[in-house]
Amino acid sequence: MTFRRQAPPRFPAPSAEYDRTNEAAFRVELERVVGSIASSGDLEAVEGVIGIRGTLVTVTGAYVIADPDGTVLANANGGAFTVTLPLAADNGGRIIVVKKIDASANVVTLDGNGVETVDGAETLSLSVQYEAYNVQSDGTAWWII
Length: 145
Description:
Jelly Rolls; 4-stranded mixed β-sheet
């Protein structure tokens, strides 16, 4: 039996913010790569499945991550605060990045929603400038990836 190595799929270069102007090309590429998932016609559902949601938001106080957020830049110069993840059950496959961007000693806490955990822990701490967590939901919990 002979196995042939395939080249990795190529995707359109990402823009700073996805504005749906390239939706047709994006949909064709998704259909080629993931087949029937993309043919559902619901691009937002497909984005959620493969973790491509996301706007970038900068926060300076307690924040609950909203549906369009993909990256949260946390500035704790004004004091420590908590960033709360959305429900894992509603976000299976979704990837979120939380990054501390200030040099203060104030801690940014990343918290699962309610009793949900992140890598088995109730909370994670970001205490150093540019420290970040990339997390992904499996539909029941969040995991550091």
